[in-house]
């Protein structure tokens, strides 16, 4: 439901540049070697046109053909040296660039995975995902391909212009005639290309997203006879993407056509100057030849450099998004939404309010919720002055209609959000997500990799026996051992696919391995269908053993089995107490229970 | 009848033949122009030696004409080729989508949705690129012919040296480069792993946070990233070495041409301008030859992709349509006789028109199998399913699905507003499914946009919207599977009442173990160990049948 998105921060250009500088600094020596090798290699390569010019001069002067052999040997030597030096230079450049990139992406992921969940949710999960996938890929490709090509092209262009000046300053002047046309063309292109490519990327993204929705829901599409609708939808989206791609191609061909004009103008100028200089005797034919070859040799590098401007721009804007997240301070929860202020560009977020030192250290498995009110949009409170406490080891069921605020209360206790008013204390201190309290929801995800790796995310030190016993307790060992490679089977994206119920069992096994003292289960057994739900309830039972637990229950049997029941209604605690007491009180819960059990008698 | 990759490839080129032919001619013109440029430079230099200003102007004019021609041909030839490529990909994308959504089904068997999407996008694009390859290959031939003609016209021995020397040069560089290339490819695969792991961890962010497993995840990513870095550096080193070698080999070949050409020029056999033309043409010659190897690679990829597309397009259907149209008036009588296979042993069942039947299955797999037979997602191995006395296998598929709607437990919602998902819907339908409450809780009511295929809704909200959609379709026979598992008890009881009232006269089959829903049915059957073992009213079964009691009450 798209209300206002508050995207994750983006760093300024200056901050990005200094972050990149800091990443490259430890690699300064490698960078210097790379540049030295590349400059030397390019310079040696650029001796070829004058050497050929020299052969031309030897021929026109009618000299001994034996002299040509010497020059040819020099040409061969130059080729060899250029090859070796450029290989060394590119490899060193890549080493520096790739290590810096690896450093950046690791820092980015370290921050991204520690971002407060409510901040990620406000930005939309797509924001983070697109930074992790698209931006990182674009930058990696730029470092991998565009960077060396760009560096080499720029070196060739710069040194060639120098070479032209050495031959005769008038050659340089002639060559520069092409520059205004090129500059104008690049500016003309960039103005149109940048927005066009942005819409293009969006259109392609939307098309893929839509296609996945349609294909993933093929069964539903057939059942509801929506085939024509969905084919039309895919057609429209795909056609839109194709048209945008072709507009991009049209723009590109116009761009290169304009560059052809600049090539022609420059080439004519250089040839005319050569002609004139040879005629008045101030240059040899060899020099004119070298100038023409120099200029002809510029076409490739200029085209490469200009065409890479796009990649460079895309990489630069990707970098600002990565650095924006990598620069975020490492915090647990973020401030509540109500008094939110936009994140300033370069100052870090204010630190967490320090925990009061004098708080008496209660048993760490207790939960104390006092006078909590909370809402996601100002003026629309979801919870009103809710107070609730869980003693260590106690199991409390949270009951209420959809929208009563059960999930929100669970998230507050887990530390996902901080309450707008009132306080939540876990073991006497403010909860930090994932620290003491584990939150298991109906959302399941099987991490790509082996089954054992998936489980070890919860407990990196766990032995294979630990993993087996956790699976055993949630009733998953049997099917796990039947997988092609047992615990070593690749699961998740690209691996063996597990059913929803199996994935949820895996989630409970992870919970056992993570071994938190407090657990919040939010409809964690709801999605599996009724028959499957019961097996999952048994798995949940095993996972909750010996822990303080708050269970959001929609099956009243779960509620009846709890030590205590809290009934939420319209964001307030309507009733609380033991099952028997609430039945005896004949309030709302008793009515719910009798309706529920009436269906069963 | 089975389609091969070759068929897909040829059809894809054939559909775009106009663009392909046009672009082939134009790009050939472009390449011929590119070959002429270095030749004309040599001629102009000869003018500097011996010609007059008028001749210079003439040749600069020729150079201008060459440029105008190559630029024009490039601009419109490239566009035509890209159009052919993109349109071919678009049409294949639609072919794949149509096949996947086809009422006969079967294309999804053994393929994950993500894999199918990648076939419809990446593979379709790779097949499309073949439409770029064909003109490029023809143009490279044209470039080659023009170069050969120019070289041989300058000097027979020098021309032969270049023409005969270049292929072995490429062969040599290929041979020397091959091991490096192979190494680079395998290591690039390692390198790609890092981004996959990152995306996967972010996709599971909530799960990681819920467990406090961020540190483990960061450590896992760090290790992958390092492995990836080492692989990348090795790959780049191999690539750099290969490129450096190419540079050295080309340079050495140029030196050889300079040696032979220089001696010929010194002997007066050719002019200096012709020597320069030869050097320029030798450099240009690398373009068509590398184009051939590019085309070769793209073609191989295109063929592999076409094979994958062909296998989707010709995947065996899960069910075949029958010859009979479904009559206008369907009374909604369902009859199962001896239905068996998989978890079903022998199911006999009669559902009267207008009856509201509950089905309780002790084995979830049996429930799924039964639903598949009723909706003809698959046919039973044995036995028949009939609608109004006609076997389902005799009926046309689309009409059948209009008459018998199976709303699966995991029925998907689609991107778009709630209203778009529901189709034409009345207040009564919304209220019956409890979806009125869902709509009023959303910021824009029914016009609220569902992100991420409804994942922004809670499980219970999603189920109620899906149920409303099924009720709004108002089919003569509605089969709903576990429609309210994530809905709270109070709402569930209201929904049971609403569904019953709304579908008073129409056949409704509720496959569920929810007491609230079962209490509202006319009759319940118990599907146990593959057969119907008991039937009766919910209350009666609850008191008389222990298996039923265990299945329904936990």
From TrEMBL, chain A:
Residue intervals passing through the bilayer: 28-48, 68-91, 154-179
This protein's record includes keyword Iron: no
Record CDD domains: ABC_6TM_exporters
GO molecular function: ABC-type oligopeptide transporter activity; ATP binding; ATP hydrolysis activity
Pfam families xrefs: ABC_membrane (PF00664), ABC_tran (PF00005)
UniProt keyword Cell membrane present: yes
ABC transporter domain boundaries: 367-595
Region called Disordered, residue ranges: 333-355
Membrane topology, from the record: Multi-pass membrane protein
Record localization: Cell membrane
Keywords, ordered alphabetically: ATP-binding, Cell inner membrane, Cell membrane, Membrane, Nucleotide-binding, Transmembrane, Transmembrane helix, Transport
Gene Ontology cellular component list: plasma membrane
ABC transmembrane type-1 domain ranges (all copies): 32-314
PANTHER family reported in the protein's UniProt record: ATP-BINDING CASSETTE SUB-FAMILY B MEMBER 10, MITOCHONDRIAL (PTHR43394:SF1), ATP-DEPENDENT PERMEASE MDL1, MITOCHONDRIAL (PTHR43394)
Name of the protein: ABC transporter ATP-binding protein
Species the sequence originates in: Nonomuraea turkmeniaca
């Amino acid at each position: 439901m798209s209300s206002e998105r508050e995207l994750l921060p983006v760093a300024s250009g200056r901050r990005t540049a200094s972050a990149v500088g800091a990443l490259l600094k430890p690699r300064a020596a490698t960078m210097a070697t790379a540049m030295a090798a590349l400059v030397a290699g390019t310079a040696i390569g650029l001796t070829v046109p004058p050497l050929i010019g020299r052969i031309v001069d030897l021929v026109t002067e009618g000299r001994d053909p034996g002299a040509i052999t010497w020059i040819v040997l020099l040409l061969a030597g130059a080729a060899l040296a250029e090859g070796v030096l450029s290989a060394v230079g590119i490899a060193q450049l890549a080493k520096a660039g790739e290590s810096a990139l690896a450093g950046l992406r690791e820092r980015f992921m370290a921050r991204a995975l520690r971002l407060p969940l409510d901040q990620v949710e406000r930005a939309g999960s797509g924001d983070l995902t697109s930074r992790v996938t698209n931006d990182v890929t674009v930058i990696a490709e730029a470092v991998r391909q565009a960077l060396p090509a760009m560096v080499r092209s720029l070196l060739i262009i710069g040194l060639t212009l120098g070479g032209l000046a050495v031959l005769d300053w008038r050659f340089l002047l002639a060559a520069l005639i092409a520059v205004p046309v090129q500059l104008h063309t690049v500016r003309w292109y960039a103005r149109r290309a940048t927005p066009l490519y942005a819409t293009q990327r969006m259109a392609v993204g939307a098309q893929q997203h839509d296609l996945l929705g349609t294909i993933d829901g093929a069964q539903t599409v057939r059942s509801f006879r929506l085939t024509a609708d969905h084919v039309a939808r895919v057609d429209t989206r795909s056609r839109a993407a194709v048209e945008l791609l072709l507009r991009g191609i049209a723009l590109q061909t116009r761009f290169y056509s304009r560059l052809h004009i600049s090539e022609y103008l420059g080439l004519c100028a250089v040839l005319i100057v050569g002609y004139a200089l040879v005629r008045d005797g101030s240059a040899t034919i060899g020099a004119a030849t070298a100038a023409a070859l120099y200029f002809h040799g510029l076409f490739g590098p200029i085209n490469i450099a200009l065409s890479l401007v796009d990649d460079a721009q895309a990489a630069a804007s990707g970098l600002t998004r990565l650095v924006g997240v990598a620069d975020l301070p490492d915090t647990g929860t973020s401030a509540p939404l109500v008094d939110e202020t936009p994140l300033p560009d370069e100052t870090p977020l204010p630190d967490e309010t320090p925990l009061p030192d004098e708080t008496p250290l209660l048993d760490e498995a207790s939960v104390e919720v006092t006078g909590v009110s909370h809402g996601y949009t100002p003026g629309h409170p979801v919870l009103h002055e809710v107070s609730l406490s869980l003693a260590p080891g106690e199991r409390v069921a949270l009951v209420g209609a959809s929208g009563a605020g059960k999930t929100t209360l669970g998230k507050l206790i887990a530390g996902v959000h901080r309450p707008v008013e009132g306080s939540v204390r876990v073991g006497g201190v403010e909860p930090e997500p994932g620290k003491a309290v584990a939150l298991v929801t109906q959302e399941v995800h099987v991490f790509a990799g082996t089954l054992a790796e998936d489980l070890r995310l919860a407990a990196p030190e766990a032995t294979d026996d630990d993993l087996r016993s956790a699976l055993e307790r949630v009733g998953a060992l049997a099917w796990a051992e039947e997988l092609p490679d047992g615990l070593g089977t690749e699961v998740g994206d690209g691996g063996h696919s597990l059913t929803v119920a199996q994935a949820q069992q895996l989630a409970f096994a992870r919970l056992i391995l993570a071994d938190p003292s407090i657990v919040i289960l939010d409809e964690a057994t709801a999605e599996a269908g009724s028959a499957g739900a019961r097996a999952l309830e048994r798995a949940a039972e095993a996972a909750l053993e010996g822990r303080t637990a708050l269970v959001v229950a929609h099956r009243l049997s779960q509620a009846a089995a709890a030590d205590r029941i809290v009934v939420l209604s319209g964001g307030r605690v309507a009733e609380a107490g033991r099952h028997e007491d609430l039945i005896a009180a004949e309030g709302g819960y008793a009515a719910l229970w009798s309706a529920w059990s009436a269906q069963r008698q | 009848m089975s389609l091969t990759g070759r068929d897909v490839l040829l059809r894809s080129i054939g559909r775009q033949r106009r663009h392909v032919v046009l672009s082939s001619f134009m790009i050939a013109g472009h390449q011929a122009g590119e070959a002429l440029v270095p030749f004309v430079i040599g001629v102009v230099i000869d003018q500097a030696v011996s010609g007059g200003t008028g001749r210079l102007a003439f040749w600069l004019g020729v150079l201008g004409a060459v440029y105008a021609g190559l630029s024009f041909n490039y601009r419109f030839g490239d566009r035509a080729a890209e159009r052919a490529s993109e349109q071919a990909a678009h049409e294949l994308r639609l072919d794949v989508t149509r096949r996947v959504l086809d009422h006969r089904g079967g294309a999804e068997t053994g393929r994950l949705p993500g894999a199918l999407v990648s076939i419809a996008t990446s593979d379709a694009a790779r097949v499309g690129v073949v439409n770029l390859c064909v003109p490029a290959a023809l143009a490279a031939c044209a470039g080659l012919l023009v170069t050969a003609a120019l070289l041989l016209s300058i000097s027979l021995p020098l021309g032969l040296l270049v023409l005969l020397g270049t292929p072995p040069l490429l062969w040599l560089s290929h041979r020397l480069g091959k091991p490096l290339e192979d190494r680079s490819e395998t290591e690039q695969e390692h390198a790609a792993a890092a981004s996959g792991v990152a995306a996967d961890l972010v996709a599971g962010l909530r799960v990681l946070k819920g467990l406090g497993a961020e540190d483990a995840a960061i450590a896992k990513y760090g290790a992958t990233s390092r492995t990836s870095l080492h692989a990348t550096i090795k790959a780049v080193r191999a690539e750099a070495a290969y490129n450096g070698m190419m540079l050295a080999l080309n340079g050495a070949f140029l030196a050889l041409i300079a040696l032979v050409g220089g001696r010929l020029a010194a002997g007066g056999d050719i002019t200096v301008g012709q020597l320069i033309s030869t050097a320029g043409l030798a450099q240009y010659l690398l373009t068509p030859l590398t184009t051939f190897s590019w085309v070769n690679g793209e073609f191989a990829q295109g063929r592999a992709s076409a094979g994958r597309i062909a296998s989707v397009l010709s995947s065996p259907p899960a069910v075949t349509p029958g010859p009979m149209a479904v009559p206008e008036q369907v009374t909604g009588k369902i009859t199962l006789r001896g239905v068996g296979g998989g978890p079903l042993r022998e199911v006999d069942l009669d559902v009267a028109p207008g009856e509201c039947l509950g089905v309780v299955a002790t084995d979830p797999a049996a429930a799924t199998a039964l639903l598949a037979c009723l909706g003809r997602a698959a046919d039973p191995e044995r036995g028949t399913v009939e609608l109004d006395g006609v076997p389902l296998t005799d009926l046309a598929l689309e009409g059948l699905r209009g008459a018998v709607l199976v709303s699966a437990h995991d029925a998907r919602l689609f991107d778009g507003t709630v209203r778009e998902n529901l189709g034409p819907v009345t207040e009564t339908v919304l209220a019956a499914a409890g979806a009125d409450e869902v709509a009023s809780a959303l910021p824009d009511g029914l016009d609220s946009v569902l992100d991420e295929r409804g994942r922004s809704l809670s499980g219970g909200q999603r189920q109620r919207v899906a149920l409303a959609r099924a009720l709004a379709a108002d089919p003569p026979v509605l089969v709903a599977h576990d429609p309210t598992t994530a809905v709270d008890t109070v709402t569930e009881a209201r929904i049971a009442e609403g569904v019953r009232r709304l579908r008073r006269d129409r056949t409704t089959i509720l496959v569920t173990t929810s007491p609230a829903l079962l209490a509202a049915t006319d009759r319940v059957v118990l599907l146990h160990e593959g057969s119907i073992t008991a039937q009766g009213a919910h209350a009666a079964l609850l008191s008389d049948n222990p298996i039923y009691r265990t299945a329904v009450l936990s």
